[in-house]
Amino acid sequence: MTVDVAEPEAAHAGAVPPPGRAATGRPAWLGQHLGTAVLAGVGGYAFGHYLGNLIASGYVRVVTAAWNDVAIVLGLLFGILGWLAGIGAFNYALAKLAGREPVHADDPPNWTKYFRYSVEHKTVGMQYLIMVLIFFFTAGLLAMGIRTELLSPTTHIYGPGTYIEIVGEHGTMMMMMASSLVVGPLGNWLVPIMIGSRRMAFPRVEASSFWCFSAGYIVILSALALGGFPTGWTGYAPLQNQGSAGMDSYLLGFGIVGAGMILAGFNIFATIVAYRAPGLTWGRLPVFVWGMVTTSFLLTLATPTLVVAIYFGILDRTAFTELYVNAHGGSSYLWENLFWFFGHPEVYIMALPGFGIVAEIIPVFTGKPLFAYRIAAAGMVGVGLLSFFVWQHHLFMSGINPDMRPLFMLTTELISIPTGFVYLVGLGTLYKAKIRFEPPMLFCLAMYFNFLIGGITGVFQSDVPVDVTVHGSFFVLAHFHYTILGGLVFAFFGGVYYWTPKLTGRTLNRKLSIWHFWTMFIFFNLTFFPMFLIGLFDQPRRVFEYASDLTTLNDFASVSAFCLGASFIIFIVNFVWSIWIDPKRAPANPWGSKGLEWQTPTPVPPYNFERIPVVYADPYHYGEADAPPVADLEPANLAFASAASNGHRAAPVVADAD
Amino acid sequence: MADVPIERPWSRQAPQTPFGTAEEIAYENRSAETAVYIGGKVLIAIYAFLFAALAFAYFYLRSSNSEDLWRPGHMTAPTPAGAAIMAFTVAGGVSFWFAVSRFRRSLFGDWEVAGWVAMTLTLTAVAIQCWQLASLPFYPGRSGYASVFIAWAGMNIFLLFSAAFWTETLVARSLRLRRARAEEGGDGGGLTPPLFRVNVGAAASFWVFVVVVSLLFWVFFYQL
């Protein structure tokens, strides 16, 4: 074959470097890694803070305040830049400025790769998995703090300021985590394999998305040290403008996580469009990948609005613009509009991946084809598109022109139709099925149960009269915990139990997994269902005191919440025990799945496939006697096999679960 | 089919699959080209939503006119500087358009010179924007207009830097390709890698977007 060679590049010719050594031949610890990122981040913060003091310490507004927002914002900004530079995120950009392609180093074949700027999608997926769990458990501990305070209506552990700081920190961290909960770990790890690709489209963009996400954790956590923020996760102005230095952490933290979300969506979208294996038409795409493509579409288009809203907030606090200050020509509603234009698609950024997971898993454990596959895909696309037209329902109570209410009530109700499509596809698959109640399936079934409650209460709230009645109460809180924790997080754990044998080559302990499921399911419902009642009795969110006749319900919810928190200890013990302490090799395809990802060896080798597979059918033909083969993993001739996949079955060597 | 050695230095994405049949390499190269093409379009969509949010802020505050403080006294940022920023940006876009047309005719010397010119014009626009920011006749919180203008200035600098960065990397890459060919004994001419051509096309689309944004916001801030 003639190849258009422009310049030699030796970097790709080498094999994987020996353990602990980078491709340059230097010892690995001399290269860029987490340690250099931390050092550069700290140095960047110090420099930025110094610069901010140099610039703004004489400003009247700074002199009269107890803190210097300019110094803190510049400190955090340079800290983030230092973090990214220290890990090596800018190396490629700098090399490109000189017209060079970067020198590529494969991951070292040991654990140190997880502390580096890896461009291997499976490594990035595992980095994300650990990071989202750190986010989740940190924010979960804060939730325990909230429920502890609410044990008594009058005896307090914290002051009201501290309480709202904890509530805000919990909410913001959870939303950041939930935005990337599936796309980050499972999306990055699985999508290339499920579409038969040997790589991501933009691996450096993918890696940068993770390191932005991890920087966000540190920045948002720093809010606690800077006095917290009084706004909750929604960051409403004008409270945002009045907040102390912790507000800067909120803005920078959410901003950098938003940047990471855009990068992640950009890369996954381009990968799915461009890198599908021959024969993998849109009509054969795994439904999990449909979830990823619609989610990444939302990530790339909705999140820029959040970034701009945050940019405005930072300008208000540092450059002394008044974009969100009504008294000076701005408007606090500007934040509300921009924030919710992102914020409502964000809800579906969280919901769609969960639906993708359960729709992927349910056929495996029912042994039936996925019911109405095309409806599921259409439903996801419909949800994605409609989600841009509903944001004003968040403003029903805060200043929307009353004439606009019916329109947004209608669009919000409309979105329940495609959501219902996706839901009914799952139920149709379950109909008359012989279900195998393995841990992943239990989580999926629980997701359907929880989401039914969360979804129906959501339909209630789309109606203006109900929204006006329950606005700002625990009813709303219970609703979104049912959709996000009860929906997405249950689906995520279903996915973790389902794919861990592929991700790690290890089997999680079944008994502990089932214990985890039942404790989480029972105590989740015991925690959040009473909150519907608490809300209907008018207890407001984000307030640390409440009417004494609600003590019993609150105590019940708090004790249940502690038990819910404890259920995750079972998961951690199971994970650590099964993966590291007493590892047991997982069977190649423990669930009997037809998915392409299960046809690869475990551990999945670098570049996933020795040959680019050719796909012949969607992976949901369970229980069909004449089920077509899913894929040919060793096509003798790619072009021939590709043509064959479009109708001419030419007796390929087929890898199939059956 | 036997594996062929990996020889795809013209593919800008790394890591490359270090093995594969000729067909697989060709397939992945086409995928890489599609990815760059799609990536270019998605990038424009991302920027479009960024600037749509800014335009929303402009019109929202303008129509709200809180406390009658949208634009007291019809305050305007220095018009000559604004016109110059817009003119340099449009000139950069035209220069890049010319560069791409020469590139498509394989006139690589012209392409590189016009590319450098486009980048220089863009950086000049950035410099004027910075100077204008430092010499505004109003302070940032004076009005809604003033606040949105400050926000626009920052975002415009970011947009122009993005265009300049993309242009610079393309021209720098082009120079290296030419030098590599010359070192191989040729005259530095010849076909450019397909992926590079796709990349140039994507940058051209981005430049169209930059020019449109520049014109639109010039109208918003100086003409309306």
Number of helices of chain B: 5
Number of helices of chain A: 21
Radius of gyration of chain B: 22 Å
Secondary-structure element order of chain B, N to C: HHHHH
> What is the percentage of strand-forming residues of chain A?
under 5%
Determine the most extensive contact between two protein chains.
Answer: A-B, 77 and 82 residues
Report the count of strand segments of chain B. Answer: 0
- Strand order, largest beta sheet of chain A: 1-2
Which structural traits does this protein have?
heterodimer; A: 658 residues; mainly alpha; Cytochrome C Oxidase, Chain A; 21 helices; 2 strands; 62% helix; globular; disordered N terminus; disordered C terminus; B: 224 residues; Four Helix Bundle (Hemerythrin (Met), subunit A); 5 helices; elongated
What does this structure look like?
The complex is a heterodimer of chains A (658) and B (224). By secondary structure, chain A is mostly helical. Chain A folds into 2 domains: 27-97, no CATH class; 118-581, Cytochrome C Oxidase, Chain A (Up-down Bundle), CATH 1.20.210. Chain A has 21 helices and 2 strands. In chain A, strands 1-2 form a two-stranded antiparallel sheet. Chain A is globular and about 75 Å long. Chain B is mostly helical and 224 residues long. Chain B has a domain at 78-223: Cytochrome c oxidase, subunit III, four-helix bundle (Four Helix Bundle (Hemerythrin (Met), subunit A), Up-down Bundle), CATH 1.20.120.80. Chain B is 74% helix and 0% strand. Chain B contains 5 helices and no strands. In chain B, α2 (79-104) runs antiparallel to α5 and α3 (108-134) runs antiparallel to α4 (144-183). Chain B is elongated, with a radius of gyration of 22 Å.
